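User: I'm curious whether this sequence folds into something compact or stays loose and floppy. Could you predict its structure so I can see for myself?
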Amino acid sequence: MNPRSLAAGFLTGKLVNNNHEGTRFGDDHPLGAIARKMFGGEDLITGMKKFDKDVKALGLTPLEVAARWITHHSALGDNDGVLLGASKCDQIVDTVGIIRKGPLPDAVLPLVEELWDAVKGTRAAIL
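Assistant: Here's the prediction. I'll summarize afterward.
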């Protein structure tokens, strides 16, 4: 996945769930403090916590929703592609497996829109 598709890993939910050691948000990462500051806005944290809770209630993870949304629900056309990126080979294998599950259930799509609505005031110009 392009880092922007996952918001540099923010859409995994690890930062808002305080499970970010070993990620680009961790204290051990050279840019961890900067990444936490970039994604530490109150609207982002609040929106992501709600999104994380809501998609998990449907049996999904934020990462799965992001990967499936970008490949099956975004404005990509038949001649477009998705670049997968990862720090570990297993992440690529996992992401391909997620994408192969196909489009998201209809109940998830409003949750994606709700998250975007919650953050677009401060993030639309960045993305």
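Summary: The radius of gyration is 14 Å. Residues 71 and 78 are 10 Å apart (CA to CA).
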